[in-house]
Amino acid sequence: MTSSLTDTAITDDVLAAAFPEDGSAPDMAVRLRLFRRLHRYYTDYLGAPGDFQRIPRLNTDPEIVRLENAWLRWEDAQVDLTRLPSDAAGFAKWFEELSADHVQPEFCRHLAEDATEAEVALFFLAEELVDSRFDDLVALAQLGSAGTMKLVMAENYWDEMGEGVAERMHTVLFEHSARHMRAVLAARGFDVGDLICAEIYENACLTLMYGVHRELTPRSLGALGLMEHSAPPRFTAMVAGCTRLGVPEDVIEYQRIHIHVDENHGAEWLEQVLTPLAERSPELLREIALGILTRERVANAYYRRVRRQMTALR
């Protein structure tokens, strides 16, 4: 099989290797190639107006459709259906307990107390595939919503926009920090491209797939809600670790502002977006919960792998 992203045909054998239905371990090298191709497709689809000639039409590439369908089937098969909330009345408590278990305490402790500057830099850049597009994900999530629900998401988006100040936009702050982190790794002879793995791309592609496909909006809302609700401890740990290591304050600003911003957004997202939707129908409750549980599984695998990548830098 060629390693070219554009020449690799998405055959039944390739999909079976990446998403085996017999319970065997996936081929992570194949998954990396597939998720890199899928990530490029999504980022092209969300391209800027000036790149209109490169923007693909949605659902017209049969190989991408086959890849997405195989991946969705595989992810759904990983969900322990006994973990789904039994009814909407218990949804908020179920979500809060799951989110509390999802904060990665050992990972956070390592960031805050033990990680080297190179390890912190690697983690920051691993987050780039998601954080650099988070404003687009929030924008997509708002489509079709109304009332208080839309206002909550719009407030979240306004924060992402730096409350109207261009240099305070979160993507701008993130890129400023990313330049510093790339320099840290480069000075130590590390190529970021060599450290990227399938789990990092899968983590990014999941939220992009949920955001791009309108029929997956309930899953997107659930996944984004879990991200917002469980993120503050990791941002707190990053600030502590960066401060310990003497990282410049302007580089830490992106992480620092998200500690309290995401605490507010997480609570509002649960109370004003997820819970009201979960109360509308059992089918909607199920879709939201599937998005949450799938995001949990994918993110847990991502944090485990990134921790190994970080340790390898020592």
Describe the protein.
This is Iron-containing redox enzyme family protein. Its EC number is 1.-.-.-. Keywords: Oxidoreductase. It contains 16 helices and no strands. The protein has two domains: 1-78, no CATH class; 92-312, Up-down Bundle (Heme Oxygenase, Chain A), CATH 1.20.910. It is 71% helix and 0% strand. It is globular, with a radius of gyration of 19 Å. Residues 1-6 have low confidence and may be disordered. With 314 residues, it is mainly α.
The rounded Rg comes to 19 Å
CATH class of the largest domain: Mainly Alpha
Spell the H/E element sequence. HHHHHHHHHHHHHHHH
Say what oligomer this is: single chain
Report the strand count.
0
**Overall pLDDT metric:** 92
Name the CATH architecture of the largest domain. Answer: Up-down Bundle
Keywords:
16 helices; 314 residues; mainly alpha; Heme Oxygenase, Chain A; disordered N terminus; single chain
Strand and helix map with partners:
Blueprint: H1 12-18, H2 28-45, H3 62-78, H4 91-101, H5 105-113, H6 117-126, H7 128-131, H8 134-141, H9 147-160, H10 170-187, H11 192-195, H12 198-212, H13 217-230, H14 232-245, H15 249-278, H16 282-312
Short structural description:
Helices cover 71% and strands 0% of the residues.
